[in-house]
Backbone:
């Protein structure tokens, strides 16, 4: 588990504007370097590379990059809308963190700013003599970056917004979060027990929304400072209302302030510590595919197998020695993961033999899983399918 600061920096770096600003800064630095290195160019080399060559290339970059950036933004927005309308609106958040799209767009914007600033400096006679030689080679490097970005963008557009890419990215997010919660079911803390908070003071939520992340290291630090304990009554992914109890504390105002500052509550769920959110996205794709207007059971079958692949990927272990010994957090409810995903698809897909066969194929290994919560939930769903099925469908699924 990464420390809070690194997690916040990583989350901030996934924003488009951050990469745009970084590459724009690199463009400005390239101009400065070209100016500084001008004195090291051998005398007479400037006669071989004329100013017209540099100006012409810069003009091409400035004119083309503005058009390419506008076109790329249009494609990105169209893809986001397509994902929201075709698969599930929740998957839109994954596309917002698409680093390939961010890097390509940032390269286009940075190249445009480089060309624009350099043209202005050329018109004011800032670059002259041997400095033009350095500027020429820096411009060629920018052109090379543009070509690489265009090739990456074309390759990326082949699958951008498609079901294959959307489901694949969602499954990857689910695998990462599920492995984290299997290794640290209570996020490195002790499991929360409501019987242990009788002598603690309640802390109530000041906002309404989803619990997005819990920053355990800072909560532990606050509890150590106050020589107290923090018992969180809510888990990541839960929806809390203003006035609802977030947790219980021993340690007074220090611990209360720590809970309010380090339990992130927002309008949307987050993928990092919440495998249920990613699995819910896959479930919604499968359910939408089973709607009468779409009638695509093949997609539902694919989602069933992706969900099963995540749930069978790891085995949760009890945390004997809690890293955060003054913190108590609810453990991952693995039974609920099955009931909110495979059980939901079973409810909508019970009339489709191919979906039933896929559900049976995935639920049988889950029913024998080493994790008792997963095994029990899988057996419950299997029994419900048996009860709901007609004889013909049962025969098909043997």
Residues:
């Amino acid at each position: 588990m990464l420390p809070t600061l690194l997690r916040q920096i990583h989350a901030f770096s996934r924003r488009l504007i951050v990469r745009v600003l970084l590459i724009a800064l690199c463009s400005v630095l390239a101009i400065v370097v070209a100016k500084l290195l001008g004195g090291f160019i051998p005398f007479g080399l400037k006669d071989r590379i004329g100013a017209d060559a540099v100006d012409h290339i810069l003009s091409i970059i400035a004119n083309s990059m503005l058009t390419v950036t506008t076109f790329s933004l249009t494609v990105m927005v169209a893809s986001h809308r397509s994902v929201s309308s075709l698969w599930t609106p929740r998957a839109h958040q994954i596309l917002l963190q698409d680093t390939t799209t961010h890097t390509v767009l940032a390269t286009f914007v940075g190249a445009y700013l480089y060309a624009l600033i350099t043209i202005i400096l050329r018109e004011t006679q800032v670059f002259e003599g041997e400095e033009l030689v350095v500027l020429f080679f820096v411009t060629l490097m920018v052109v090379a970056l543009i070509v690489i970005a265009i090739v990456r963008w074309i390759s990326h557009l082949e699958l951008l917004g498609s079901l294959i890419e959307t489901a694949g990215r969602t499954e990857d997010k689910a695998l990462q979060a599920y492995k984290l919660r299997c290794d640290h079911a209570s996020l490195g803390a002790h499991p929360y027990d409501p019987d242990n908070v009788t002598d603690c003071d309640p802390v109530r939520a000041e906002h309404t929304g989803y619990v997005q992340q819990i920053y355990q290291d800072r909560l532990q630090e606050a509890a150590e400072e106050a020589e107290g304990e923090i018992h969180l009554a809510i888990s990541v992914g839960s929806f809390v209302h203003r006035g609802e109890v977030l947790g219980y504390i021993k340690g007074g105002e220090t611990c209360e302030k720590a809970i309010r500052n380090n339990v992130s509550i927002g309008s949307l769920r987050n993928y990092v510590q919440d495998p249920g959110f990613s699995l819910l996205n896959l479930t919604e794709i499968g359910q939408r595919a089973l709607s009468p207007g779409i009638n695509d059971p093949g997609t539902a079958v694919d989602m069933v197998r992706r969900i099963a692949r995540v749930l069978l990927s790891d085995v949760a272990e009890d945390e004997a020695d809690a890293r955060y010994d003054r913190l108590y957090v609810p453990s991952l409810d693995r039974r609920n993961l099955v009931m909110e995903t495979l059980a939901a698809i079973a409810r909508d897909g019970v009339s489709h033999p191919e979906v039933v066969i896929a559900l049976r194929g995935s639920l049988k290994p889950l029913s024998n899983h080493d994790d008792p919560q997963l095994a029990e939930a899988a057996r419950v769903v299997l029994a419900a399918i048996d009860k709901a099925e007609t004889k013909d469908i049962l025969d098909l699924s043997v």
In short: Residues 190-266 form a domain with the Aldehyde Oxidoreductase; domain 3 fold (CATH 3.90.1170.30). The beta strands are 189-191, 201-204, 209-214, 229-232, 239-240, 245-250, 263-266, 324-329. Confidence is low (pLDDT under 50) at residues 390-398.
